From TrEMBL:
The lineage of its organism: Bacteria, Bacillati, Bacillota, Clostridia, Eubacteriales. It is an enzyme of class 1 (oxidoreductase). The gene is fabG. It holds the Pfam family adh_short_C2. NADP(+) binds at G12, G13, S14, R15, N90, Y155, S156, A157, A158, K159, I188. InterPro entries: 3oxo_ACP_reduc (IPR011284), KR_dom (IPR057326), NAD(P)-bd_dom_sf (IPR036291), Sc_DH/Rdtase_CS (IPR020904), SDR (IPR050259), SDR_fam (IPR002347). Residues 6-186 form the Ketoreductase domain. Belongs to the short-chain dehydrogenases/reductases (SDR) family. GO terms for biological process: fatty acid biosynthetic process; steroid metabolic process. Pathway: Lipid metabolism; fatty acid biosynthesis. It catalyses: a (3R)-hydroxyacyl-[ACP] + NADP(+) = a 3-oxoacyl-[ACP] + NADPH + H(+). This is 3-oxoacyl-[acyl-carrier-protein] reductase.
Length: 247
């Protein structure tokens, strides 16, 4: 699993799973570009950590739901690195509520970030990958995109949408040497899940055969595999990384 001389773009790379992915791909040899929404300090820390490893890294503040910002980010990456080999659509948010109480904004924000964001990012990089006749796109979906979850109709719809998006784009670009896959994490310990009440966490843990929550690194290692040449014959798949929670 070597990624020397490859450029990896990771959306939402400042914290949590995206941060672990950025650091892991750099460990495998890639130069890395991350974007983020607010957290300048966390994004700079990721860049510093990667530079200490002797790889190149850039962080760019760009909201994935806004086309102009995505375009500026990708233009900057192409200018700095010349090409893009790997795109990880990881940026995501939750705005949980039961349907009867869910505000229209909560629906729009989640769909715009988690699903439209992946569309805008993928559209921005796809020409460069098609020209190269090589590329890897990895979409971070979720277990709830397959199972649904009470209180997460917006998030589950976006994550299920991401699976349909993954399979459709995989079919479109397979003849061009580009593989598109999705990872469906179960419960991973990050800021996103930290806010859940203890009794909910306990209940969730009871449903994980491996009897532990996942770490961001559990997802990063699967992204490493799907980014490397050795997975070139795998496309259009949804890989559950969840300690057995979905089966
Ligand atoms: N944690 C889990 O258990 C779990 C399970 C299944 C799937 N996932 C998915 O995995 C991905 C990462 O989750 P996480 O747990 O690592 O979340 P997290 O700790 O909350 O981190 C979210 C990341 O996304 C960035 N982001 C949010 N909105 C953005 C926007 N509009 N534009 C650009 N960047 C944006 C954040 O940037 P700032 O730092 O600037 O806010 C941050 O870097 C998400 O897609 C999530 O749905 C997570």
């Amino acid at each position: 699993m070597r990624l020397e001389n490859k450029t990896a773009v990771i959306s939402g790379g400042s914290r949590g799973i995206g941060r672990a992915i950025a650091i892991y791909l750099a460990k495998l040899g890639a130069n890395v570009a991350i974007n983020y929404n607010n957290n300048d300090k966390a994004a700079s820390a990721v860049v510093q950590e990667i530079e200490l490893m002797g790889r190149k890294a850039i962080a760019f503040k760009a909201d994935v739901s806004k086309n102009e910002e995505v375009q500026l980010f990708i233009d900057k990456v192409l200018k700095e690195y010349g090409s893009i080999d790997i795109l990880v659509n990881n940026a995501g948010i939750t705005r949980d509520n039961l349907l009867a109480r869910m505000k229209e904004n909560d629906w729009d924000d989640v769909l715009n970030t988690n699903l439209k964001g992946a569309f805008l990012m993928t559209k921005a990089v796809i020409r460069a990958m098609m020209k190269k006749r090589k590329g890897k796109i990895i979409n971070i979906s979720s277990i709830v995109g397959s199972t649904g979850n009470a209180g997460q109709s917006n998030y589950s719809a976006a994550k299920a949408g991401l699976i349909g998006f993954t399979k459709s784009i995989a079919k479109e670009v397979a003849p061009r040497g580009i593989q598109v896959n999705a990872i469906a994490p179960g419960f991973i310990q990050t800021d996103m899940t930290e806010v859940l009440p203890e009794n909910v966490k306990e209940q969730l843990l009871n449903n994980i055969p491996a009897k532990r929550f996942g770490d961001p690194e559990d997802i990063a290692s699967m992204v490493g595999f799907l980014s490397a040449d050795l997975s070139d014959y795998i496309t259009g798949q949804v890989i559950h990384v969840d300690g057995g929670m979905y089966m």
